Amino acid sequence: MPSLEFGLDTFLPVTVDQDGLPVSGDQVIRNTVEEAVLAEAVGIDSFNIGEHYRTEFMDSAGHVILAAIASRTERIRLGTAVTVLSTQDPVRLYTDYATLDAVSNGRGQLIVGRGSLTDSFPLFGFDLADYEELFEEKLDLLVRLLREQPVTWSGNFRSALSNQFVSPPIPKGHIPTWVGVGGSPQSVVRAARFGLPLMLAIIAGRPERFAPYVELYKRALEQHGQTELPIGVHSLGFVAETDDEALKIQWPYYKEQFEWAARERGWRPPTYEQFLAEVDHGSMYVGSPETVAHRIAATMHALSLSRFDLLYAVGRVPHDQRMATIGLYGREVIPRVRELLAAADEADRAPAAGVRT
Amino acid sequence: MTVAASALTENPAGATRPEVDDLRLGIVGAGKLGTTLARAALAAGYDVAISGSGPADDIALTIEVLAAGARAATTDEVARHADIIVLAVPTHRFRELPRDLFAGKILVDAMNYWEPVDGDDPELTAAPDGTSVIVRDHFPSARLVKSLNQLGYHELEENRHPRGAPDRIAIGAAGDDRLAVRKVMRLLDRLGFDPIDAGPLTNGTVLEPDGSPIATTYTADQLTKLLSR
């Protein structure tokens, strides 16, 4: 079996305290550092921070938070989920993460994407009409900076580089960079064309329906002469001691979060039945460690994944309960998923063994 | 030409012979929605041509894997391929298409305008009679019908059922060209949804974000009730 990576993702939602009152943004940021320190202690492989520019999320400068985490940890990988590359300067992104990689002794990683929200476009003065072109061009420059310097490059959206070294240098292969895809086939093909691993964000519906995207990615890698590369999934979830407790804690915050999104995007707010359907066979990994482990293992097996990132605790779930989820995910869910996948692998091989006798 | 007798026997002339449907469909946009619709149409027996924003080669592999049997084409070819064309491009990009590209064709506007995703577009934000009126004004020679915009792509994928199935869900179609609306309704039925006539194009506002039916899986009765409010 290839080596498996189990990560945690967070957008640093402004949580509430036990009285239901909002926690201040700076406290949310410090709490997140504690959450990441616990994540390492319970054996989780990576901790990854999103990028948003809105009042409910405190993840606008993830690299600073990751650097703070780096100084408190030794082993856990530190990355993004996702970096909105379209509105970043790839040179600045490189310097931030090459520096993070240095202070963390080689633990930096990235997931880059176009982002499903576009707040950063007006904020940084980019035109949404250039959505596609911006990402393509910036990914090209970032990949060059990461793979080989000096870089000579020119594009439409920033000044050209000529024989440019950008410091600090990184050892070859450092800062593994994944492309985050929300379901656009062209983005899947692009990841393959650049020879970058694929991270699928699946936030609703049956995960199995992404199997054709996995197939498309593998075929596109072949077509572009690339070697086989890992595939991961980012989904949402919450773990508690029992299924009932997990549902009871997560539902009100999920409801609140999706009601806000519904108001903004004109969706219908979710019903409890829809939430339960997502938990039962969709893309919400909510329940006891055993329940969540079975669902994660099923998704990883069905889609041939080697990485699974859990966006833990949807909405304003208090810090204490976020910590409890991290503890259960690291101590119980991940070891159990590894067991289940090893057993599934063995079962896959069993018919061949039967033929031999 | 692929043809089939429509199961809906009523026709505009009121004659008794069954209407014959042209089972060809064009789809402009090879993203999530376009490829999902292509799969649905292939399953319903349609001959499908689909285009992205560039040369056909750019989407050839995508179509081969995600919608095997559909033909990857240029947008010009798609416009010539069929009488019904579904427009499934990002909303902030439809104005890049030539105004007379779909002259005489039934053009299904499957797009939604979401400011957080599409950016601030003053014309679409104002749109007192709905965004499809703006789309119609951009393509004045097309027969515009608003439909297939109501469901998320995974809902479209997971909720197609044969006629009469108890859990079959409904999709509305709004447009001023009544014959065009009827043809789109037959397309909806073949794809696996109960078609609901949502009235003239300006009624399309109720099918839009902030309107009641968006991103919901209503039955025909429920959707009819909502639309008549």
Features:
heterodimer; A: about 350 residues; alpha/beta; TIM Barrel; ten-stranded parallel β-sheet; two-stranded antiparallel ribbon; 11 helices; globular; B: about 230 residues; Rossmann fold; eight-stranded mixed β-sheet; two-stranded antiparallel sheet; 9 helices; about 20% strand; disordered N terminus
Describe this structure in words.
With 357 residues, chain A is of the alpha/beta class. Chain A has one domain: Alpha-Beta Barrel (TIM Barrel), CATH 3.20.20. Chain A is built from 11 helices and 12 strands. Chain A has helices spanning 25-41, 62-72, 90-103, 120-124, 131-147, 185-193, 211-223, 243-265, 272-281, 289-302, 319-356; strands at residues 5-10, 46-49, 77-80, 83-84, 110-113, 151-153, 161-164, 177-181, 198-201, 231-239, 284-287, 307-312. In chain A, the strands form 2 sheets. In chain A, strands 1, 2, 3, 4, 5, 8, 9, 10, 11 and 12 form a 10-stranded parallel β-sheet that branches. In chain A, strand 6 (151-153) and strand 7 form a beta hairpin. In chain A, helix 2 (62-72) packs parallel to helix 3 and helix 6 (185-193) packs parallel to helix 7. The longest helix of chain A has 38 residues, at 319-356. The radius of gyration of chain A is 20 Å and the shape is globular. Chain B is α/β, with parallel strands linked by helices and 229 residues long. Chain B has one domain: NAD(P)-binding Rossmann-like Domain (Rossmann fold). Chain B is 33% helix and 18% strand. Chain B has 9 helices and 10 strands. Chain B has helices at 32-43, 56-66, 75-81, 115-118, 122-126, 131-138, 153-158, 178-191, 220-228, and strands at 3-5, 20-22, 24-28, 47-51, 71-73, 84-87, 106-109, 143-147, 170-175, 194-197. An 8-stranded mixed β-sheet of chain B has the order 5-4-3-6-7-8-9-10, with helices on both faces. A two-stranded antiparallel sheet of chain B has the order 1-2. In chain B, strand 3, helix 1 and strand 4 (47-51) form a beta-alpha-beta unit. Mean pLDDT of chain B is 88; it is low at 1-17. Chains A and B meet through helix 6 and helix 7 of A and helix 2, helix 4 and helix 7 of B.
